Amino acid sequence: MGNNKEKYEKLIDASILFSLDPEKESSEYRKEREKMIEYLYFYLMCVNKKKNEPYGMEIVEVANRCIKNYNSGSGRFLNYFSAAWAKESQHISGDIAIENKYRGLKFTYQEERNLKKYFDYFKKKRSSVPGEEDYPQIAEFMGISVDKVRRLSEVAIVTVTGEYVHNSEEEEVSVFDSVDSGTSIEDVFSEEELYVERLDKIERTFCSLQERQKPIVSDLLTARIGLDISIIEKQSKSYSFISKDIADIIKRKRKVPSQRDIADKYNKNESSISRTMKEFEAKLKKQ
Amino acid sequence: MKRLIICSVPMKKEVEKTVYASDDLSLPVSDMPYMYPINSFLSQKAEGSDEYKVLLLAKNDGNPYYEKNAEDFKKELGGVFASVGAKAEFVMIDTDFSKEKEIPEQLMGRIVDEIEVGDHIMADITYGPKELPIVIFSALGFAEKFLECDIDNIVYGKADFEEGKVVRTEIWDMSPLYYLSSVTNTIRCDDPEKARKMLKSLLSI
């Protein structure tokens, strides 16, 4: 490989990949595509090996996405890829910051959300934030250890940045805005039964969709509705509408992909996938 | 441009001519019958300005057929080169058809000895013993990584049979698989699940 950034810049610029027809010149296109991905990887190693080398999978995914979406109107391909990689790098850096912030503490999205509800409940009842003396009771309600409540309370009350979804009016809202701060602890448990009933209804409607619509609707549903990671993990085997990809992103990055992210994944614009989702919602209402 | 052609020659008695089909514009072939798909391909791609070295790989099983097959190959490809005015050198590497384990590795080394820095390499893996494609892949990997070579094509003549008879032959190019392997051997990925995900990403077009 050497440390020769200019060499890989030239190879990338000189590639014939984008002049080939993927259908009619299939073998040549596939070969040049693999070569391009390798050149992009080596290029990033030349730019900053220490920073980029641990992220082989992410580099391939970004390279793949860029190759699929690029057209000559986007300018120089290397610049197009570099911008996309810079954005992905930022996400990765944010994940690392969150990982450091949580100091390796493993907890589910549901636990984080429930703790916030309990804290709001206590504040409403007693006009004060729960203290050490309240942790045993909270631990019993949540089914976790007192130590975990203590550590969660240190870090989990602050909303994790980047957790936004689109509501039905296409507005970006924080997932925590949807939590009812007046909910009682007892109500939290009955909510789960209603939740499962809603999931069943969604599943029935989802199964009636055309095959081409299912991947998009699955991703959007999981991003909007499947926010409780513990429910996703429990139910994902029985609900076909749950998107493993999106669930994995939420669990791994503690961030819900936006509608724009999902549109990019399928190489469509946002209004197109929004229409698909509206068709689904109309069917759901008729159920 | 210097081009190296590597072709495995069969041990069987006769190689029949057939018309190789292609629905891939990057793999043009002749509508005339040829014994070897690489020759059909080169009949459309060879240029008089290029210099060719042809490496024939054969297994000496004690029968004379492989030598005749090699001569037939030279005649067929020689005709293609003559038609475009290209210069060509033919080199034969024949090894003993033996079960001794060191033979494949040694053959790989002998192939690499014939490769020059910067060569553009094409290979035909249609015929010959089953270990030859793996030996050729290994040699190509070395050439690409250390000798600054480009692997242009790795062709294979796929045959469809009905009641023991060939009814259709088609040319395939395995070089995309070669480069996929090169990418996955290059990229670091410490998590097995992430590595699987990376492969799925590479396989999605």
Distance between the termini of chain A: 59 Å
The total beta strand count of chain A reads 2
Order of helices and strands of chain A: HHHHHHHEEHHHHHH
Question: What is the CA-atom radius of gyration of chain A, in angstroms?
Answer: 23 Å
Classify the beta-strand content of chain B into a percent band.
25-35%
The major β-sheet of chain B equals: 7 strands, mixed
- The helix tally of chain A amounts to 13
- The N- to C-terminal Cα distance of chain B equals 32 Å
Mean pLDDT of chain A: 76
**Largest sheet descriptor of chain A:** 2 strands, antiparallel
Q: Uncertain runs of chain B with pLDDT below 50, 5 residues or more? A: none
Q: Which pair has the most extensive contact?
A: A-B, 26 and 27 residues
Q: How are strands sequenced across the largest beta sheet of chain B?
A: 2-7-6-5-1-3-4
User: What gross morphology of chain B would you assign?
Assistant: globular
**What structural category arises from helix and sheet content of chain A?**
mainly alpha
Q: Give the fraction of residues assigned to helices of chain B.
A: 25-40%
Q: Oligomer, anyone?
A: heterodimer
Given helix and strand content, the structural type of chain B is alpha/beta
How is the largest sheet of chain A built, in terms of strand order? Answer: 1-2
